[in-house]
Write a structure and sequence with these properties.
The termini are far apart. With about 325 residues, the protein is α/β, with parallel strands linked by helices.
């Protein structure tokens, strides 16, 4: 019997070697958290190997690749108040989950805790972690860290109630960059999002990843779709015009292919969230040498393949 109050949810596809390593690292935690693995249609034997080697892990096999929304299935079956996301090439440092539980317990309106991400054996700081730590949104009284409007899924712990109430990750986006829209929706619903660098997640990027050019196009497509889904018309025009001026016709066509889903799911953010996004955008444009700001649509120079839950669809 585990005393952990946080379930770890992992979405995976055709990465058995990395997944196996991650599951061993999670099993070494004390107490070992319950783990749910959602398989995005693997063909490498993951579904057969996992129950044999890790019978304590719950496996949810999906019929195909659902991208980031696979995590929604894992959260739905979790029976703990908090859920930490890992990817098949990332895991949590000892003590991080217990510390996060204490933070959630002490702050009922806390919806997401973003941790510091250390990359590779050399434990390099992920650029987005540095950016989140320097968030201009400041630290509100009663919150355990600086306020943010973004996170990396593989270094985030969520309040299950908040995640489910906001609908989880959007099927319109599929993958990657799915965290942005969820961050905005959580903030719109009144939940606080904080970056707490004392909590640590480790990420050893998989060797199995999509080509960088294809990934950048998908990131640009999803950044544009996220604006279409929630921002006012002037912001939509500006973001769309930026892609046109950059000659990114493939990005625009890919976004337009998902327009029916956008129209069904579109809703405006409240004024308070828009004000915070405007502050983040002003900082992004005034500091062109920095990483693209969380909360904006400027390009992000984060780690190549930052914790992908699945291979992207064509």
């Amino acid at each position: 019997m585990t005393s952990a109050r946080t379930t770890v949810v992992i979405a995976t596809r055709d990465r058995w070697d990395e997944l196996r390593h991650t599951l061993h690292r999670l099993a070494e935690l004390d107490p070992a958290p319950p783990v749910v693995v959602v398989d995005n249609g693997s063909s490498d034997g993951t579904r057969q190997r996992l129950p044999a080697e890790f019978p304590q892990v719950r496996l949810i096999p999906l019929s195909g690749n659902r991208g980031a929304t696979a995590r929604n299935h894992g959260v739905a079956v979790a029976r703990t108040p908090y859920v930490a996301f890992s990817d098949d090439d990332s895991w949590w440092a000892p003590g991080a989950l217990q510390q996060a539980e204490r933070l959630f317990d002490a702050c009922p309106r806390l919806g997401v805790v973003s941790a510091r991400t250390l990359v590779g054996p050399e434990q390099r700081l992920d650029p987005l972690s540095a950016e989140l730590a320097a968030s201009p949104l400041g630290r509100e009284p009663g919150l355990p860290g600086v306020s943010v409007l973004g996170f990396l899924a593989c270094a985030a712990i969520v309040r299950r109630e908040a995640f489910l109430a906001c609908g989880g990750f959007s099927p319109v986006l599929f993958f990657p960059g799915e965290e942005q829209l969820l961050s905005w929706d959580l903030a719109a619903a009144g939940w606080a999002l904080c970056h707490v660098p004392e909590l640590v997640a480790h990420h050893h990027p998989s060797r199995i990843r999509p080509p960088s050019a294809a990934r950048r196009r998908l990131q640009a497509r999803n950044a544009l779709l996220t604006v279409w889904l929630r921002r006012p018309w002037p912001e939509i025009a500006a973001a769309t015009g930026a892609q046109l001026r950059a000659g990114e016709l493939r990005v625009l066509l890919a976004a337009l292919a998902r327009l029916p889903g956008v129209l069904r799911a579109r809703r405006r953010l409240p004024a308070e969230v828009e004000q915070r996004l405007a502050l983040l955008q002003r900082q992004a444009w005034s500091a062109p040498g920095r990483v693209g700001q969380q909360g904006t649509t400027t390009p992000q120079t984060v780690e190549e393949d930052p914790c992908p839950p699945a291979k992207p669809a064509p």
